[in-house]
Amino acid sequence: MRKPLADKVTITPDETNNIISIRPEKSECPYPIVISFTSPEYSPEYQSTLPEDTTEEQVPSKEFLNEEKCMEALAKIRRVRWSLRKIRAEIELPVVRILLDLREAYSGWKHLSPYAAEVLVHLVMEKLAKDVRESELSFSRLFIQCLEVLAEGMALRGGPGMKDPCEAKPVDVFSYLEPQHAEDLTRGAQNALRLASFGRLKELLKMDS
Question: pLDDT band at residue 61, thresholds of 50, 70 and 90?
Fold first, then answer.
């Protein structure tokens, strides 16, 4: 019989963010369980389908849930579903993890979000798959190609941007970055590409020689 993780839990409601945090008092895990509340009825797509004679009582109430936080939670759900369908575990996922590991090693990378990294790797992979044979694909080639895309200014304001595949309207997946953070990421990618171009991947990834 499995023992309970803790005898008691601390439950903290957060009405502003539409969440409830649950933290076992005796658990060794430092992270709480977070439950978010949302509904597809808060999405603009749903509300646009309501007939013109819809009464105020039939429209989702904004009294109990923060509409903005509901929209953010719905976006997270769409992104998780997209990632599960699209990211290829055998080649794309390792590159995503490498890019995210760079956040711990270099300050310029610290604002790269997991979702932006996933979209970047997947779209670069799609382009590579059209240009080269599958037998020529490799982790290093995909990784360096991702560095090239970022180094060219993909994340910069006023740059080409990268369309968010989870949004119906054109939304740049890097639009969450502040201008300075986008510049830091671009500069970090340029420095990383320089090291990779000279065959210094181990140095870049801080691997033991």
Answer: low
Record the pTM.
0.81
- Residue 124 CB contacts under 8 Å (≥ 6 apart), including other chains: 142, 145, 146, 149
What is the SS3 assignment for 4?
Answer: coil
Give the separation between CA 182 and CA 81, rounded to whole angstroms. 26
Which residue ranges form the domains of the chain, and what is each CATH number?
Answer: 8-49 (no CATH), 88-209 (1.10.1410.40)
Closest CA to 72 of 117, 148, 18: 18
pLDDT value for 1:
45
Residues in a beta bridge with 10: 23
pLDDT tens-digit profile of 127-183? 988 887 777 778 889 999 999 999 999 999 988 999 999 998 899 999 999 999 999
User: Across-strand partners of 22?
Assistant: 11, 33
Q: DSSP labels for 140-194?
A: HHHHHHHHHHHHTTTTSTTS---B-TT-SS--BTTTTS-HHHHHHHHHHHHHHHH
